[in-house]
Each structure stands twice: as structure tokens, then as C-alpha cells.
Amino acid sequence: MSFNFKHDSNKKIHFIGIGGVSMSGLAEILLEHNYKVSGSDAKKSLATDKLEKNGAEIYIGHNSSNINNVDLIVYTAAIPNDNPELIRAKELNIPLVTRAEFLGTLMKDHKFNVAVSGTHGKTTTTSIISHIVLKANLDPTILVGGDLDIIGGNVRAGKSDYFITEACEYKASFLQFFPYIGVILDIDADHLDYYKDIDDIERTFTKFSNLIPEDGYLIANYDDERTARVASKAKCNIVSYGIENGKITAKNIGYDDHGCAVFDVYNGNKFLFNIRLNIPGKHNILNTLASIATALVLDIDANSIIAGIQSFNGTHRRFEIKGTKDGVTVIDDYAHHPTEIKATLAAAQNYPHERIFCVFQPHTYSRTQSLFNEFANAFSNVDALVLADIYAAREKDTGVVSSNMLGDEIRKNGVPCKNLHSFDDIVTYLKGNLTEGDVLFTIGAGDVYKVGEMFLEQK
């Protein structure tokens, strides 16, 4: 691809699927640098409205006529080959690149690229690092997979050499990146519609670690066996972290009344500082240690690190307290993998509650099928569970797996579980069963958050 981010601002870039969280962020970065931007999506959204307000040409619906005086086209992995805009671009010989390739190209023009990878915790860790780097006044460009209040969304266009982004392993897209600092938080079985097995996933993370130059750094979670194994093969500098293992560690861990950790941070045997988190759960100790390790590599001072961590109250849809109604607290979380669900519900045990109700919306048929037994055993910490229908996302229902099937298996495990097939029915059920002191969790990567909002809005 012939594209130079710093010198090609006279070009017009078109995004197919511009409303996606990463695509809209890339488009916003270009608009901040005075590029001409157009894009299409299946439906209007807050993201498309914001881009249009900032000067982008937005088309609702995919049509060949949307390709108008375009120099380069960026598309997502979810766009099918028969998309009329893709077909038209090929007819006109307009250069085509994937979202990951384009993001990698933007990274090329920055020196200190931080790419946060791992099956779980990418958004939270990227957000904590962003807070720290902002407190250090390093003027970074940021691209994160969730809305972050400190930057007013999921993207920030900085003017410095610092670029902070999530690095997703789906379809090995992060192999298109150019990390100077690569973070691997953990390696778990996911996206098995693409990968053969967990060993295939681990090999792909090894390829990611090999993208880091010899003078660069791999930040690796040594509490995770597969991550430690990948790090042992890396050719760059290694900074390990963990609660049990690693150089950057947490000691003297305690928890406050809301399940948020307080601990001492050590670099080897050297005490660095004490930290109090504003986000709950043991898993967020690890996310914070990864962020601290990254900040130390960037030579950020302790005061900025502490200030950045203490200013972080979570991203939207990550243990996000949505509100309280009639004494019932509603919390929403993006968890969509069994490991993430267990971590969220473990953190919930330290949150004040009488009973924990959970509404879970499985995300994609392929994930539900490939991790069926793991999902069936992920809800032992709830007093009552409601299963919504599977959120299809990019997939079609083949009838091989369903939310009802998952519910049957969960009920066999002794968890009180009810299958309901509309959000209205779920809210009616919750209204009749929740009482003062209960906590309601809406969990999933789809639109299950609407259930909590509907519950809070009811009269």
C-alpha cells in the first residue's frame, strides 16, 4: 500500500463499515489530521453521527455509488466479498486494505507504539496505560475498544510519537502491527471459528512477539503459562509481571468494601509505591501491573503512574455501575468469554449485595458452541441467571446450538436459570423478582446492556 500518514492528507479515504468501534476511531484520527473521509455502514449510530458532525461523508447502506473520487478504501474483516462497494473498488482499481493493515500503516509513523494484546483485559489495560501516558503529558494517539471518559470516546489524535492501541488476535489481525512495546496479558481459547485450537492461538502470539524489534520490549504476564512460554522465545527485551511470578509484582494485597484492590508494587525486591484501584477484581491487579510495567519502560515517573491509575474509574461496559432503582444496583459488563464471566462474577462477590442476579446474552453461535461446557460452568457465583437469545453478530443461526440448549446444561449444574426470549419479558421477570439490596448484572458483548437501562427507566 502506497500511503504515508504524515504526507498524504490530500487523499480521500473511504471506510466500509465505518460505524465499528475501531473503524470509526481510525476515521476520527484522519479527520483530526485534515484528511477527506467518507464511509458507509448498515445503520446510523452515535459513531456515524459524530463522524458526520466532524466532516465525514456518511452513507447509510452499502452501495456502489458511495465510491466517489476515493483514493484508498479500508474495510473490516466482517465485510463479505460480494459487498457492492468492494466490487466497485476492484473495478476502478482503487487500493484496498483491511482495517488491521491500515492501523499498522498509521503505527509506522510513530516510534513508541504500544500494542496491548491478550484474550482478556485488552480494553481495560489499554485504558489504564492511556491514563498514565496522559498524566505524563506525552500527547499520545489512542485507539481503545471502549469509551473512555478522559478522551471523550474511544480515540484521541495526538501529535507525538506515542501511539497506544489494542491489538486483537481475531483472524490474526495484530500481525499487521508494528509494536515497539508489545503487551501479552494472557492466552486463552477463543475465536475457534478461525483458529484450529489453543496451540494454534499460542503460535500466533509467538508471531506477534516476533514483530517487536530487538531494542523493543515485550511485557508478559508470567502468571499465565502460555504467555510465559511465548516470552521465553522472544528476541527482544522482556519485562515480566504477575501476582505469583515476574519482575513487576503486587504484594500485601487487600480489598476495600467494593472489591477494589489495595497493594504494594515491587520491581524485583525494590518497593516502588502503594496503589489503590478504583476498579474491582483480582484480574484488574494483573491489568494494572501490565500498565505499570509499560509505563516503566516508557520512563514515566512514579507520580504520573500513580495519578494515572487513581484517575481511572473504568471504561464503559466494564463493571460499569449504571444506576440504582428501588434499592437494586444495575452493573453492566462486556464479558463474553467464560474466563471473563468468572472473573467478573468473582469480583461481584466483594461488591455489597443481598443476591446476585445475572442476565447473560451469549455472543456468536461459534463461540457458544466451541466453549459450550465452559459457559455451562461459568455461573456458579450467581443466585439467579437469565439467558437471552444468542447475539448473532456476524454469524447465521445454523440450529447447531441455542441459548435454550445452554440453559438446559446450566440447570443440570444446579444453577437457577431461566431462558427468556425478549428483553421486555426479561425486564418483567426482573421487576417481579428483584428486591432491595440485590445487584443485577447484564453481561455480554451484544446489546444486553439495554436490559439494565430498561429496568432503570421503568415506572
Describe this entry's structure for a reader.
There is one protein chain. The protein is of the alpha/beta class. It has 3 domains: 12-100, NAD(P)-binding Rossmann-like Domain (Rossmann fold); 110-310, Mur-like, catalytic domain (UDP-N-acetylmuramoyl-L-alanine:D-glutamate ligase, 3-Layer(aba) Sandwich); 320-457, Mur ligase, C-terminal domain (Protein-Tyrosine Phosphatase, Chain A). The protein is built from 15 helices and 21 strands. The strands form 3 sheets. Strands 8-7-9-6-10-11-12-13-14-15 form a 10-stranded mixed β-sheet, with helices on both faces. The protein has a 6-stranded mixed β-sheet with strand order 16-17-21-18-19-20, sandwiched between helices. Helix 5 crosses helix 8 (283-297) and helix 5 packs across helix 9. The longest helix has 15 residues, at 283-297. It is globular. The relative contact order is 0.09. The mean pLDDT is 91.
